[in-house]
Amino acid sequence: MEKLTGLNKLKTAVFISGTGSNFKNLIKFSKIKTTPISINLVISNTHKAKGLKYADQIKIKKRIFNFKDIEDTEKKILILLKREKINFVCLAGFMKMLSRNFIKQFDGKIINIHPSLLPKYKGLNTHRRAILNKDKFAGCTVHYVTEKLDSGKIIMQKKIKITAKDNARSLAKKILAQEHKLYPAAIMKIFN
Ligand code: GAR
What we know:
Layout: E1 10-16, H1 21-30, E2 37-44, H2 51-57, E3 61-64, H3 70-83, E4 88-91, H4 100-105, E5 110-114, H5 126-132, E6 137-144, E7 154-161, H6 168-191
Parallel strand pairs: 1-2, 1-4, 2-3, 4-5
Antiparallel strand pairs: 5-6, 6-7
């Protein structure tokens, strides 16, 4: 993709469902001089997402959609994204699947962060599964989004060691810290 500088930064929407630490971190990244993105919108599937409070604090536009009727919801989101001139989407702890039709409208412009070394451990409970399987390594992956769960082309991964002391909770904490480095690095990689 082309190098983005100055005014032509990519207008980005971040989709969240929970704590929003990656969202917060992406906001920080969007403020540095060399960043290719500006974050203009946050979308959540639930009012309960803690990350929304942060959006309020920093006055970023937020919208909540309940996804009960997926087709209708996606239609509304697409209208919103178009209206806001969004041309890049970062999923950050967003726990809903997006349809092939939705993804087609943003082909190659939706990325996700996942807390495992994909293709290992798609889906949920990645840390618990790595511990139960007595894996020696775990990590996180930034990848393009396709209609298949956690299956798009990998952009970047970070691998870390699982120690004898680790449990699912400690591993999640260690990996989340790595996610905060990996997501910005992966975005830089795409646009440089
Ligand atoms: C992160 O660990 C992210 O990788 C994971 O949810 C957490 C969200 O944390 N995402 C998935 O599992 C998506 N399949 P955050 O809300 O603090 O960014």
